[in-house]
Amino acid sequence: xxxxxxxxxxxxxxxxxxxxxxxxxxxxxxxxxxxxxxxxxxxxxxxxxxxxxxxxxxxxxxxxxxxxxxxxxxxxxxxxxxxxxxxxxxxxxxxxxxxxxxxxxxxxxxxxxxxxxxxxxxxxxxxxxxxxxxxxxxxxxxxxxxxxxxxxxxxxxxxxxxxxxxxxxxxxxxxxxxxxxxxxxxxxxxxxxxxxxxxxxxxxxxxxxxxxxxxxxxxxxxxxxxxxxxxxxxxxxxxxxxxxxxxxxxxxxxxxxxxxxxxxxxxxxxxxxxxxxxxxxxxxxxxxxxxxxxxxxxxxxxxxxxxxxx
Amino acid sequence: xxxxxxxxxxxxxxxxxxxxxxxxxxxxxxxxxxxxxxxxxxxxxxxxxxxxxxxxxxxxxxxxxxxxxxxxxxxxxxxxxxxxxxxxxxxxxxxxxxxxxxxxxxxxxxxxxxxxxxxxxxxxxxxxxxxxxxxxxxxxxxxxxxxxxxxxxxx
Lengths: 310, 155
Description:
Number of helices of chain A: 10
Shape of chain B: globular
CATH topology of the largest domain in chain B: Alpha-Beta Plaits
CATH topology of the largest domain in chain A: Rossmann fold
Helix content of chain B: 10-25%
CATH superfamily of the largest domain in chain A: Aspartate/ornithine carbamoyltransferase
Strand order of the largest sheet of chain A: 7-6-5-8-9
Number of strands of chain A: 9
CATH architecture of the largest domain in chain B: 2-Layer Sandwich
Distance between the termini of chain A: 32 Å
CATH architecture of the largest domain in chain A: 3-Layer(aba) Sandwich
Strand content of chain A: 5-15%
Distance between the termini of chain B: 38 Å
Structural class of chain A: alpha/beta
Largest sheet of chain B: 5 strands, antiparallel
CATH superfamily of the largest domain in chain B: Aspartate carbamoyltransferase regulatory subunit, N-terminal domain
Oligomer: heterodimer
Order of helices and strands of chain A: HEHEHEHEHEHEHEHEHEH
Number of helices of chain B: 4
CATH class of the largest domain in chain A: Alpha Beta
């Protein structure tokens, strides 16, 4: 199957091979090399929820490879008239060769993948999974550390509703990572996920103290406390702004430690951090382009050449 | 006092033995047995059992369970013994086997699951992640489902 709904859809070998493919596609992602591998192919970008980086990087990825993009939002379309996801997907299957879907409801990507025969890539389903983000996260980690094996990774912030950390934690433990989960209790990692991580034999520590976790970290992965996932404002106010990092916090860190963030940030990362060698979040955002190129090619059964000439 | 003397033998129907003690009412709900039906349903709860310590037994007259119904039974009572009775004798013994996937057995309870929209046409699917202890999750959203919730949301 060429759908990517959760990280379980990719074997460890496939993950590493997609990372290798992504690395070769970096010059194409930058626009330095013309490589129209997906000419004539159409991507349906189905966004039922807001997105900046994911939607744009998929669009750039498709266009840099010579393909074209149909952009869909739920506002002003048949969805506003009450069309089911199933029916919308039937229509999309007639218009596009591959679909990327983001949806506020959990399970929507699996549902869409089951509804149609074209490949479906999950670009975030409610508080569920976000596997294409995980691929760019793994790419960023490998770029900095030369490997994704056996690292100390600290995941910080909204671990309950943050879908990026759900997919990322599943993937990292398959490569022997030691995970430290830092969150207030109200936003702790869902029980199902912690149970999965532990039963897979992973070392997982849960704490609410970020300061303790910094000195041993190879990667600190910050996330935004997502206001839109809270049922009421008071609950949000209790936890907003609880974790922040600035340039001074980097003094106690290991050499080579990197700070990542799926963005947007709303105060978790002080701008003073941006100019430190630890900051990788903007590079991480760029890395969405080559990794999504590789995922689009995989979905469409297109092989990336072993040599991409610059 | 033996369990057989608590409830009379049935002429035709299904006997479900070795139900975990206290779960017979859940089994009735899971099997969607119409309690307003005209034929008798006999139920004994918490009777002594050599195998289980205590157990429940259910006797449903004039109803033979099919495989789809047995799948439902396996959720609550994976080690139950099922006998189809015809003319006071055991005509068939049926094996209760928990399938890996339960299709249209119960609705996912998670309020933000895509399947909460009644108009979405694909089937409800639950996945058996672990058998001992039993752990069930929605195939689509991945959320864990408690046995109580499954019984409440039987389709």
